[in-house]
Amino acid sequence: MVGIVIVSHGAMANGMLDAARMIVGEQEGMLAVSLEEMEDVEGLIEKIAAAVEKVDTGDGVLVLVDVFGASPFNASARLTLSRDKMDVITGMNLPMLLELAIHRQGSNLDELVKIALEAGTSSIKTLSETLKSK
Amino acid sequence: MPVFHVRMDNRLIHGQILVSWNSAFKIDHIIVTNDKVANDPLQVTLLKAVAPLNAKVSVLTIKDCVDYCNSPEAEKENIFILAKYPEDGLALLEAGLKIPVLNLGNQAFVRGSQKISNTVFLTESGVKALKKIHEMGIRITCRMMPNDPDTEYWPTIEKTLPQWAKSD
To answer: Do B46 and A67 touch (CB under 8 A)?
Structure first.
């Protein structure tokens, strides 16, 4: 099963794990890493690498981060480029994480990346537009 | 003035730069400058990959950065320089960059550094570099966000880390 690591500024990553637990239950091989205010990218890379080691069972690891180009992304990207079977998705949201949790059994890394992108983008809607299209 | 801001930030291009600074100013060109980073192809690739739509990103050694900023090509641009450490800020000045203010951004904890605030930890070598910058008559500010006050920051450094800030 593909491992999942969630990386964010501050407490968002832990909050997403907590929220996912309420909806789809306790997850194996899924860890959160936070960038603290006083941390540098090198230190963050070490924390992400440790989490990746823990969740990797040989099927690879998908890293979810909050903002493209920000430190959680930069650190994850530097780690990914020096390693096999790993990818990074930015702009993470809870619907994306829920779909990943549901489809992790039996999907490989490439399939999960597609599922995450589709779920992450198609889940963004406004009430007004939704009501109009009914 | 082609170079309108120099920030010493060991996280280089990150969220605060791309979101807050990039929306507060019209930036055409972000130059990341640090000799080690400029010679690391992996970091150069990533830094260029995160360039915002409005600005190009270059990753240059200190010398190449100053040469570029003093060239006619730079005249047409609004350049935001991101140096990694205070030592890089001093090196820019010593290499001939003309700028009245250097801004201290994030300086994360590294081995041997001392805390000044939650976002600024300085090493002895960093404090010595900032002291030289101050003695050159350059104003040092410490603004994480564009709307932080641009007060002179050297007195805070001197007061917090007097063991490193005092004269030899």
So the answer is: no
The phi and psi torsions of B115 (rounded to 5 degrees) equal -80, 135
pLDDT over threshold 70, residue B168: no
Q: Which domains does chain A have, with CATH numbers?
A: 8-93 (3.40.50.510)
Looking at residue B55, what is its pLDDT? 95
ipTM of the complex model: 0.79
Task: Encode pLDDT of A12-68 as tens digits.
Answer: 999 999 999 999 999 999 999 999 988 889 999 999 999 999 999 999 999 999 999
* Among candidate residues B24, B49, B19, the one with its CA nearest the CA of residue B32: B49
Q: Does B145 touch chain A (CB under 8 A)?
A: no
Q: Which residues of B touch A70 (CB under 8 A)?
A: 14-15, 18-19
Q: A81 vs B45: CB contact, 8 Å cut-off?
A: yes
- Could you give the CA distance from residue B153 to residue B155 in angstroms, rounded to a whole number? 6
SS (H, E, C) chain A: CCEEEEEEECCHHHHHHHHHHHHHCCCCCEEEEEECCCCCHHHHHHHHHHHHHHHCCCCCEEEEECCCCCHHHHHHHHHHCCCCCEEEECCCCHHHHHHHHHHCCCCCHHHHHHHHHHHHHHCCCCHHHHHHCC
Please state, for a pLDDT cut of 90, what percent of chain B lies above it. Answer: 93
State mean pLDDT over B107-119: 93
CB pair distance less than 8 Å for A38 and B11: no
In this complex, the residue of A38, A68, A77 whose CB is nearest that of residue B109 is A38
Q: What is the pTM of this model?
A: 0.87
Q: Which residues pair with A33 in a beta bridge?
A: A7
Instruction: Tell me if the domain spanning B3-160 has CATH number 3.40.35.10.
Output: yes
CB contact under 8 A, A74 and B46: yes
Q: What pLDDT score does B77 carry?
A: 96
